[in-house]
Design a protein that fits this description.
Radius of gyration: 15 Å
CATH superfamily: Metalloproteases ("zincins"), catalytic domain
Number of domains: 1
Largest sheet: 4 strands, mixed
Number of helices: 7
Low-confidence stretches: none
Strand order of the largest sheet: 1-2-4-3
Structural class: alpha/beta
Distance between the termini: 31 Å
CATH architecture: 3-Layer(aba) Sandwich
CATH topology: Collagenase (Catalytic Domain)
Strand content: 15-25%
Length: 158
């Protein structure tokens, strides 16, 4: 059983977006992804706007434009984790306005979940430097969404 300490914050986001079953999704996803062994896991999810994600994208990736999702992995930083505290996986930041622009009508929730799954995979060390790795990552995202009863959005579906 995966135990997840989950921190959700929203910046200028509709309450119904914050009320989605984020913690349930991440907990189910972690149960099949085989993260590094730990008694508990911790991650934060920030739902934000284009202005804030553009600032983060500029400051951390050198790209001065909004993006849909950013992931800041604590595992990559090599921060030691004492055995009695949750293993901090890192932070996922999603721009809700960008996600909504990318979503086909009626697929906003699936698109948000898709981006959350993408961010989680990055926290766990997945990357897509080439087409082969991208295809593997997209297939894994599709499996994760199916696990929580969702489908890949048309925009991203294979």
């Amino acid at each position: 059983m995966i135990e997840l300490v989950f921190d959700l914050t929203g910046q200028e986001v509709e309450p119904e977006v914050c009320d989605l079953p984020w913690q349930e999704w991440f907990t189910q996803w972690l149960s099949v992804l085989n993260p590094p062994p730990a008694p508990r896991y911790e991650l934060s999810l920030r739902l934000t706007n284009d202005v804030e994600i553009q600032q983060l994208n500029r400051d951390y990736r050198g790209k001065d434009s909004p993006t849909d999702v950013l992931a800041f992995s604590a595992l990559e930083a090599g921060v030691p984790c004492p055995p009695h505290v949750p293993l901090c996986l890192g932070d996922v930041v999603i721009s809700v306005p960008t996600a909504y622009r990318q979503a086909a009508p009626g697929e906003e929730v699936n698109t948000l979940a898709w981006l959350a799954a993408h961010g989680l995979l990055h926290l766990l060390g997945w990357d897509h430097p080439d087409e082969e790795h991208l295809a593997q990552m997209l297939a894994q995202q599709q499996r994760l969404l199916e696990q929580v009863g969702l489908t890949a959005p048309q925009t991203y579906g294979q």
